[in-house]
Amino acid sequence: MMRIKKVVLAYSGGVDTSVCIPYLKKEYDIEQVVTFAADLGQGDELEPIRRKALEAGASHSLVDDLIKPFIEEFAFPAIRANALYEGRYPLSTALARPLIARRLVEIADEIGAEAVAHGCTGKGNDQVRFDVAISALAPHLKVLTPAREWGMSREETIAYGESCGIPAPVSKKSPYSIDLNLLGRSIEAGPLEDPMTAPSEEIFEMTSSIIDSPEDAEEIEINFERGNPVAINGKALDPVSLVRKVNQLGGKHGFGRLDIIENRVVGIKSREIYESPGLLLLIKAHQELESLTLAADVLRMKAQLERHWADLIYQGLWFSPLKDSLDAFIDKTQLYVNGVVRIRLHKGNAIIIGRDSINSSLYLPNMATYGKEDKFNHQAAEGFIYIWGMPSRIWAEKRKG
Ligand code: ARG
User: Fold this and answer.
1) Which pLDDT belongs to residue 141?
2) Helix 154-163 to helix 15-27 angle, to the nearest 10 degrees?
């Protein structure tokens, strides 16, 4: 096999990806490990992470702010698709992976690396998402996955790191495995592996507990144009500021927590805790506006396709022909998803209390009203029902004894 001289490693600053640096150099005999850390709005200090990679032996350590494309190109399509995996998980982690993969591949091409690498283990969904996305975008690149191969326990990984001069983590060891970005946090492992053990309050950061949330309800309005959220309480915001604002509003009122058993791509069930106040709130509001602006049959077809869309993203198939084709349908439906949704936030709830669309509403007051403005043709109902009920009458008649 051709010797790999240069690799780009997706880097988070954690133990596993730090150990990947000396491991790739030693065990894979690679000259240069270039690390890449993405800023996805996780709020980590990125400069220490950049330096940490160099200390662990990286020849270059790159950090890119990808928050804008993350929200515009990945989160907003998910909102337009009302994407909830298995009806619940808003894909906050899954949506980040194809973007990181895309940037990894770009960097590899820019610096002439023959391979890319990531620190995912062999049990999760993220490895599937990275590997598939990379192979779709750059089939010529090799994907190295040290953590999937080395078979070291956490203690062994730390010891291996120490032998290469990587200090053991100093912070109090958390039993949890956490992934976070501007769209949400996922918390797994430790005591949560028992599906009957309730999550303790300290694991949450984006959402307040019901007890600590304000006694008073707060009413907010979210405006959409062509299916994209554009304003909060009448104030236009750029996509990133808007998501930050909705996270803050939902989180303050304790909205957006999930505690679920989820079916992973690799065939196992896992217990997952999520908090994703902004994304869940935006999907809820968007769904509501669609109920006002989309025709009944379009709504029903879209609901079926949405499940497929969410499955594709979860299963690592962002770059795939079916995703591409579903997007064409979804984008077409969004042309008239314009208007506003009013929501009451209170004690963990987000209750829809109003919706309006000046140009695109299919709700006709003079058809719906029970008042004197009623324009519905009541007599026409008789003929309609006569024909509509014909199959039932024929069937019932034939079966009479
Ligand atoms: N179960 C979620 C998903 O598959 C969260 C994964 C979190 N990833 C991680 N490396 N901790 O999208």
Assistant:
1) 96
2) 60
Confidence of residue 69 (pLDDT cuts 50, 70, 90): very high
Residue type, 75: A
6-163 belongs to which CATH class?
A: alpha beta
Q: In what order do the strands lie in the sheet with 269-275?
A: 177-181, 184-188, 269-275, 257-263
Say whether 29 is catalytic.
no
pLDDT at position 1: 62
Q: Is the dihedral of CA 23, 21, 102, 237 positive or negative?
A: positive
CATH topology of domain 365-398: 1.20.5
**What number does the ligand 1 atom closest to the CA of 270 have?**
1
> How many C-beta neighbours within 10 Å does residue 259 have?
14
Question: Domain spanning 177-294+337-356 has what CATH number?
Answer: 3.90.1260.10
Determine which residue's CA is closest to atom 7 belonging to ligand 1: 179
Q: Which of 91, 125, 313 to mutate to test the pocket of ligand 1 (most atoms within 8 A of CB)?
A: 125
Report the atom number in ligand 1 closest to the C-alpha of 120. Answer: 10
pLDDT for the residue numbered 171: 65
Q: Respond yes or no: is residue 126 known to be catalytic.
A: yes
Decide if 344 contacts 351 (C-beta within 8 A): yes
Measured in Å, residue 92 CA sits from the centre of ligand 1 at 9
**Segment 165-213, tens digit of pLDDT:** 998 876 657 889 999 999 999 999 999 999 999 999 999 999 999 999 9
According to DSSP, residue 200 is labeled P
Q: Which atom of ligand 1 is nearest to the CA of 92?
A: 12
In this predicted structure, what is the pLDDT of residue 154? 82
Rounded to the nearest angstrom, the distance between the alpha carbon of 367 and the centre of ligand 1 is: 47
Tell me whether domains 177-294+337-356 and 365-398 share a fold: no
Amino acid letter, 104: L
What pLDDT sits at residue 223?
Answer: 98
327 is catalytic: no
pLDDT tens-digit series, residues 96-111: 999 999 999 999 999 9
pLDDT at position 204: 98
- Arithmetic mean of pLDDT over the chain: 96
Cβ(16)–Cβ(157) under 8 Å? yes
What are the domain boundaries of the chain? Answer: 6-163, 177-294+337-356, 365-398
CA of 32 to the centre of ligand 1 (A): 29
CA of 97 to the centre of ligand 1 (A): 10
From the CB of 315, is ligand 1 less than 6 Å away? no
Look up residue 190 and give its DSSP letter. Answer: G
- pLDDT tens-digit map of 169-179: 766 578 899 99
